[in-house]
Each structure stands twice: as C-alpha cells, then as structure tokens.
UniProtKB/TrEMBL annotation:
<dbReference type="Pfam" id="PF00437">
    <property type="entry name" value="T2SSE"/>
</dbReference>
<keyword id="KW-0547">Nucleotide-binding</keyword>
<comment type="similarity">
    <text>Belongs to the GSP E family.</text>
</comment>
<dbReference type="InterPro" id="IPR001482">
    <property type="entry name" value="T2SS/T4SS_dom"/>
</dbReference>
<feature type="domain" description="Bacterial type II secretion system protein E">
    <location>
        <begin position="204"/>
        <end position="218"/>
    </location>
</feature>
<dbReference type="GO" id="GO:0005524">
    <property type="term" value="F:ATP binding"/>
</dbReference>
<dbReference type="InterPro" id="IPR047667">
    <property type="entry name" value="ATPase_ComGA"/>
</dbReference>
<keyword id="KW-0067">ATP-binding</keyword>
<dbReference type="GO" id="GO:0016887">
    <property type="term" value="F:ATP hydrolysis activity"/>
</dbReference>
<dbReference type="InterPro" id="IPR027417">
    <property type="entry name" value="P-loop_NTPase"/>
</dbReference>
<dbReference type="GO" id="GO:0005886">
    <property type="term" value="C:plasma membrane"/>
</dbReference>
<protein>
    <submittedName>
        <fullName>Competence protein ComGA</fullName>
    </submittedName>
</protein>
Length: 358
C-alpha cells in the first residue's frame, strides 16, 4: 500500500473507532502507530523506518508544514476528505535528540457524534448545570483535563437552553471542534491577526444571548470575558485548573479581582472522564469488548459549585442560611470515592484521578 492510500486507510479506521488522537511514534528501527481510544493508548500498526518517515512527511505536506525541517516542533491542520465524509485534523510534530520525528494527529469531533447526551455518573450535578445555564447573564466556567468532554458539555447545555426559542449563540474557539449549525461559530486565526480578544470584542457588538469561549488563556481574554458577563450576556468558558475551587485562583492569577468575580460568576464545573471497570476484561473496558457500548466506556464525573457555595468555600463568607461555612458534600474526591465504592471504577483509576491537596 502506498503512502497516500495508507494515510486514507489510517484516518478512515481512526474515524470509525471514534479515535481522539493518532500517535505515530519512533522506536529504534521502526515506527509504532497508536490510537487513543477512550483515553487509552492502543497499538494498531507497525511501520518500518522509511514507511514511517514517508507517512509523517506526507501529513506535514498536507498541513502546510515545512517538510524539510525536523529540528523545530511544528503544528498545522487540514480537512481530510474520506470516501463518505470530510474530517478536520490538527497535526503536531516533535523530534527526539536523534532527530527522529513523532507526529500526533488530533481528530476534531463532528456534529453527528456529539448530539447525544453525555454519559454521566450522577444526574444531580448535571441538573445543577442545566439550572445555571438558564441565567440571563453571568459567567459559568468549566475546567478539567484535556479530552475530558468540556466542549461537548458546554455545547449540549447551551443547545438545550435554546430549544423552543431563537437565541443567538456565538462561539469563539481555537479551533472549532464540533460543527453546530445552530451556533455562529468563529475561529482564532493568528496569521490573519484574528485573536481571542479581537473575536470577543466583535462578538459583544453582535448582541448575542450566549457566548461560548473555547479557553481563557491570558489576561486579555479574561478581561473581555468579564466585560461580556457584566454587560448582560451569558458567557460559558473553559479554563485550566486543578478542581472547581482552583478556578478562582486561576482567574485571580489572570488579573481578575475578587470583587469582579463576585459580581459575575454564577458557577464553576470541574469534569473528567473516568474509564469504566469491566468484569469481563478484568480491567478498564477494552475497545473491542461489548460489555459497555463503544461510546460509553467512559463516563463524566462532575463537581459543580454555585456562586453561593464558592462564596462560602473560597471567599470565606457566611451563607444566608446559618452564618457558618457550607460543608460541600459533593466535592470531586468525595464523588470519586462513591464511584469507586460502587464498583464502577477500579482502585488504579481511583488513585490516578484522586486530587491531592484539593
């Protein structure tokens, strides 16, 4: 099979398995290709050194990277046309000290795979989020590791909010991960001078009901997000932090004052996807096992805190109910232990996802 035909075959198989990433990694005398399936790396193909090098060069050419440059890390993207659909891919290369290149291909999720309700462990937290997104204005922040389903959750909640009435929803992302025709989706383009800040300013002038922000990365983005929440818009955004209460510290690190957070923040959600234990596999459920459906081998665990709970826990202010601080019984580690004790995950998964010093 020539390089182009194998590339089509590789992406077709990865798409059919709902792979999030393809890893093409160098060994001493060959290349191994792994699919990241349900959060786990699974080996799929073996290529000799020349085949692996040609495959990486082919993908670099398609994504407008410098094919001859192997010393510097590079990134790029393209839309790849398969026999029955087009898929959006993002590429990243890094070489080791022997100048052997590795390539990771991220397959961006498509609309038809993302219309389903996310698989979740506890409905209590999800219903809490559904109530929070009904707010007319304010800031709702999502946090969690990469590939934890944050974008899926934000899209599903806002799409549900809009049912029955026409609302203008604008997304500001880098890149757009899920195609949703009912939203006005915009994408950062650094080469054209279109930054997060620029798109957010333009979005606010467009008078939307809701703005979804892919990620708050810097002080300028944080400032524009706070401005949008103050001027009567509902802003739903993601930000990297260790847990729900850690989001406050991260926003303060980006220059947002405590008083401004109190005015705008309506809630914070931390989520991660946990691999389910399978009694047949006697481990996390394998890709080809039929005990759990292919798309349900991982379920989302949420920690959700409202503004009142955040006031009591993080800002050390008493609540209206009793004058003392709120005991947060549904914090992440407590829920994780509950999932483990009920046999949904194994001990190894429990220890891996337990948040120390939370």
């Amino acid at each position: 099979m020539d390089t182009e035909a194998f590339a089509v075959h590789l992406l077709t198989m990865a798409d059919s398995y709902r792979t999030s990433d393809i890893h093409i990694l160098p060994e001493q005398k060959h290349y191994d290709i792994y699919f990241r399936l349900n959060g786990q790396m699974e080996k799929q193909y073996y290529l000799d050194r020349d085949e692996g090098t040609r495959l990486i060069s082919y993908f670099k050419f398609l994504s407008n990277m410098d094919v001859g440059e192997k010393r510097r890390p590079q990134s790029g993207g393209t839309t790849f046309q398969l026999s029955n659909k087009a898929i959006d891919c993002r590429f990243s290369t890094i070489s080791n000290y022997q100048l052997q290149e590795s390539l990771v291909i991220r397959l961006l999720k498509q609309k038809e795979e993302e219309n389903k309700i996310p698989g979740i462990f506890f409905s209590h937290e999800w219903k809490k989020l559904e109530r929070l997104v009904q707010s007319k204005s304010g800031l709702l922040l999502f946090s969690g590791p990469v590939d934890s389903g944050k974008t899926t959750s934000m899209y599903h909640l806002i799409k549900n909010r809009s049912q029955g009435e026409k609302q203008q929803v604008i997304t500001v992302e880098d890149p757009v991960e899920i195609e949703e025709t009912s939203f006005l989706q915009t994408q950062v383009n650094d080469k054209a001078g279109v930054s997060y800040e620029h798109l957010l300013k333009s979005s606010l002038r467009h008078h939307p009901d809701v703005i979804i922000v892919g990620e708050i990365r810097d002080e300028e983005t944080a400032r524009m997000v706070m401005r949008g929440a103050l001027t009567g818009h509902l802003i739903v955004a993601s930000i990297h932090a260790k847990n729900a209460s850690g989001v406050i510290a991260r926003m303060q690190e980006l220059g947002v004052s405590t008083s401004l957070l109190k005015q705008t923040l309506i809630g914070v959600a931390f989520q991660t996807l946990l691999p389910l234990y399978c009694s047949l596999c006697e481990s996390n459920c394998r890709t080809y096992c039929s005990h759990h459906d292919r798309g349900k081998k991982r379920l989302a665990l949420f920690e959700v805190m409202t503004a009142k709970e955040l006031d009591s826990l993080t800002f050390n202010e008493p609540t209206e109910r009793g004058g003392g601080t709120v005991s947060v019984k549904r914090e992440f580690n407590h829920l994780l232990e509950k999932v483990f004790m009920n046999g949904y995950i194994n001990e190894k998964t429990y220890r891996r996802y337990y948040i120390s010093n939370a």
